[in-house]
Amino acid sequence: MAQDAGWSPQDADVERPSPARMYDYFLGGSHNFAPDRELAERYMQVLPDMPEIARANRKFLVRAVRALTAAGVDQYLDLGSGLPTQGCTHETARKINPSARVVYVDVDPVTVEFGRSLLDTTSGVEILHADLRAPQAVLDSAEVARCLDLSRPVGVLMVAMLHFVPDTDDPAALVAAYRDASAPGSHLVVSHATSDYHPETMREAASVYNSGATHGMNFRSRAQIGALLSGYELLEPGLVDVIRWRPDDDHDPLGGDVSRYNLLAAVAQKPSVVLAT
Ligand SMILES: C[S@@+](CC[C@H](N)C(=O)[O-])C[C@H]1O[C@@H](n2cnc3c(N)ncnc32)[C@H](O)[C@@H]1O
Questions:
Q1: Per-residue pLDDT tens for 148-202?
Q2: Which of 156, 190, 222, 256 has the highest count of CB atoms within 10 angstroms of its CB?
Q3: 13 versus 57: which is more confidently predicted?
Q4: Cβ < 6 A, ligand 1 pocket
Q5: How does residue 86 score in pLDDT terms, banded at 50, 70 and 90?
């Protein structure tokens, strides 16, 4: 039995590594258990850049939410949110608009339980334990009903999470379900791991991950990731290497080789006017 700080819900499976807690470990957090850390360490033997990749991903999330909030987006549905710490959506948005509202959704019960305790006294922010592969259940949830008005534009986040959805679960159809439920003018924020640059390394990395984690890793090509965004218009600069999405500094801990991030990112908008076909 994994032993750690006493914060996991009674019935949670903490023996099986979860992407949420491994990600927390990569970010330097403490909300993870020995099995999470062991698999994360094995993963880093194949991909030693992973902590920098995780940090670059969170920094992209911050830049994207900042840009959207500055443009007037005041409500967010953060799917596969992980822990609401270290540059999370509501804190970032509320620095610009203190009344911004957020629903966090994650499939990992430990992460959600801990998130609830963090957000206990924060109004206008909800956390929902759900699998985003059941879009109707998410969209019909009491948390979404209490917090968001889906008749108005919303920012939907799927940041570093679609690579946990295998092709057999039809990620394009899932993206489309959330797009169709969003008002015209809504946005989608995406980052997605890619195997384009280092296919052999990423194949090995996926096999380590898939050997134990609750959700397997599905790297995709730029073309496949782009195809997931159909029905949206990409904002500038398009689908790009994660540190190239509207950078706010020159800091590149991986020394200028963007391929080492193996992560593409984009922000896109559902058109306000649907053209007749
Ligand atoms: C790498 S973390 C990314 C966290 C956050 N979005 C970020 O970018 O900082 C991926 C998250 O997706 C969650 N996740 C994976 N599959 C999911 C699913 N089917 N439904 C909901 N959450 C899921 C994991 O539990 C994990 O917290």
A1: 999 999 999 999 999 999 999 999 999 999 999 999 999 999 999 999 999 999 9
A2: 190
A3: 57
A4: 18-20, 23, 57-58, 61, 80-82, 105-108, 111, 131-133, 159-161, 164, 215
A5: confident
Taking only the tens place, the pLDDT of each residue in 238-268 is 999 999 999 998 889 999 899 999 999 999 9
What does the alpha-carbon distance between residue 244 and residue 266 come to, in Å, rounded to a whole number? 10
Q: Which atom of ligand 1 is nearest to the CA of 191?
A: 8
Q: Hey, what domains does the chain have and what are their CATH numbers? A: 50-199+219-269 (3.40.50.150)
- Whether residue 51 is preceded by a cis peptide bond, meaning omega within 30 degrees of 0, is no
